[in-house]
From TrEMBL:
InterPro entries xrefs: 6-hairpin_glycosidase_sf, 6hp_glycosidase-like_sf, Gal_mutarotase_sf_dom, GH65_N, GH94_catalytic, GH94_Enzymes, GH94N_CBP, Glyco_hydrolase_94_b-supersand
Gene3D superfamilies cross-referenced by the UniProt entry: 1.50.10.10, Glycoside hydrolase, family 65, N-terminal domain (2.70.98.40), Maltose phosphorylase, domain 3 (2.60.420.10), mpn423 like domain (1.20.890.20)
Pfam families referenced in this protein's UniProt entry, alphabetically: GH94_b-supersand, Glyco_hydro_94
Protein's name according to its UniProt entry: Cellobiose phosphorylase
Organism the protein comes from: Treponema ruminis
GO molecular function terms noted in the UniProt entry: carbohydrate binding; cellobiose phosphorylase activity
Alphabetic keyword roster: Glycosyltransferase, Transferase
GO biological process, one term: carbohydrate metabolic process
Amino acid sequence: MKFGHFDDSRREYVIETPRTPYPWINYLGTQGFFSLISNTAGGYSFYKDARLRRITRYRYNNVPIDMGGRYFYINDNGTIWNPGWSPVKTELDAYECRHGMGYTVITGKKNDLKAEVTFFVPQDYDGEVQQVVLTNESKSDKTFKFWSFAEWCLWDAQDDCTNFQRNFSTGRVEIKDSTIYHKTEYRDRRNHFAFYSVNDKIDGYDTDRDTFIGLYNGFNNPQQVLDGKCGNSLADGWAPIASHYKEITLKAGETKTLVFVLGYVEMPVEKKFEADGKTINKEKALAMIEKYNTPEKFAAGMKELRAYWDKLLGILNVNTPEDKVNRMVNIWNQYQCMVTFNLSRSASYFESGIGRGMGFRDSNQDILGFVHQIPDRARERLIDIASTQLEDGGCYHQYQPLTKKGNADIGGDFSDDPLWMILSVSAYIKETGDWSILDAKVPYDNDESKAKSMLDHLTVSFYHIVNNLGPHGLPLAMRADWNDCINLSCFSDTPGESFQTYTNPKFKAEGGYSKVAESVFVAALFTYVGPNFVGILNHLGKADEAKKAQAEIDKMKKVMMDSAWDGNWFMRAYDAYGKKMGSKECEEGQIFIEPQGFAIMSDIDKDATKKTLAAIDERLNTKHGLVLNNPAFTKYYVQYGEISTYPGGYKENAGIFTHNNAWIICAAAYAGEGDQAFKYYSEIAPAYTEETSDLHKTEPYVYGQMIGGKDAGSDIGQTGKNFGQGKNSWLTGTAAWNMVAISQYILGIQPDFDGLKVDPSIPANWDGFTATRLFRGAKYNITIKNPSHVCKGVKSMVVDGKAVDGCVVPFVEGKKEVNVEITLG
């Protein structure tokens, strides 16, 4: 069952009912100011840091769901409704929500009154602009009452929802003309404030929540709206809000347009106030309001936003036999990659924006799917990430976006973290040809006195793995590897304790983690990532160092076959007792998805590749995607940690983790199994799961982190109950890795150090496809022909009319257009 449809010509998803299976959201903003907005106008806004600069309030896990947002209320002769249906939930005569690239348009109609509301965050602007177009479609005049509504968060989102003994006494506002200013703590420690304005004279306002809503009312029945008036209330502590009130009369067929701005301003300390030392200096705010105070200026801002996305989405464009592939590659997958790059894992409808900043592992992987869009910002992010690294090659697992410093509360020792930086820096160089990044001086632990070259950072990353091996010669698992829920050093038996702790007294004397537990996954990742490091060294003429690094990779491959090959697949780990995990010898969790893909792509062993692909298809694949492990754990294994605490079929315990599904898609394509790769791709790609939106639940236009596995419901005796149900949408490494899987491995358009590699691995029934790719200043027009209907194999390549051996189009400086024709066979 579907709840809307794709409008590819406008790059929008059109939602046709407010009663979606879960709130379906969009993100507004591309730089510093961001908003989350649902299809019924729920959500919130923040500046840079969703915890420390939360602008509007939102309550997670609320009942009813998705309560709190930017609302407009209409009282039309006693009929009260919202353009987005919620929160009043009066049945509308017509409803539509269009989520587009950085904007959302919600339209509601009731009793011949139409309200169309467009929300967007303009480029280089610290605010959300909202245009409300009210049209009287009746044949007679209409007079109605209209309110805006936003609830201020008192800046620190965690403190805002916990420290009530203080916060109920600190809220402060200021009002001038048609603008309401939020200035809590501005007179003392803060130099920032927020405001909410409208470009028309208002008939009243409210800034005290209890006055507007009523102490025992809710968002669905605000007292002032019920009474058809406003209180002109001034917040003094408690819960400050911003609500404009206006009485509007429209003649038959007449339209009225209002433009609202929800903005954020920072002021120099010496310019915080006007001459009286109390009144906010509104100079910056007024300039922001002036910039979008007419419908014409609003339209210009929207035009600029569309041009921005036209440019970004014009870098890669494909035309395949599958419309759903085109839709994902050309529009929605790239869009999600951009959002995920901006926000990492900080703020979504599944991440509260409080507990996590920017992840080291996460942000490096996000760059893989984003680097072709805005490489300059990718370079900046890489330097930010590397600056949080430690001198021994270890890394802070997270850093805060405001300070850009490593999060000491979370710490480090996640064994896979250093390798992702090698991969992301390599991806940047392959995309741009900018080798100068390796010379950039980058501090360790944000200490400029310890700054060394980016190449030095990559070197210590590589040897951090080599220098931390266990008894079998495999990398130590440490606190966790990519799977944060496999905790081989924790042995937690205390409720509420983090599974990623160093509390186990057995290992405290050893530095906090077991020197026996080893990760086969990190070994496989090392053999996959390592050749990139070798390639960099060879390019720089460091042949001896490259030879040394290659020897370590070859050594690890041998260890993989000698100590981690289980006969038909690669094991997952050795636990702290030195026992196998992810082996046929185990009672549960016999096979895991994570190591398999990278082992295949590392060419460890051809026979092992065939057996592994067969085992994946037989043991892990389902109609809704590949489960992470099989069989699911049915009891708690203290030596494994958090993974065994989830009910079977959920999250890391045999859930369908779409992030590492992409690694298998890449691996199958790499191995020449294009049909198998595409089968796995279409099992999880949102455009393909749209038909079962009622089951899948989350947005049909973006990836989620997880889909319920075949064991979902087994704990309650209803195995398969939520098999296929999605969770944790939007902010996930799934976006970047599936972009890599479809564009670089299936379609085979892959940047390389020496040029653009084109080596497709497609379904055999495809006749071919075409693509355009902007790469290092040139436009590549690519035509793939498949007359023999094979999956993989470049039979011939013609570049600008001349035959070229191999499948790498050599980069030629200064060339503006390149025509590439490839025949498979």
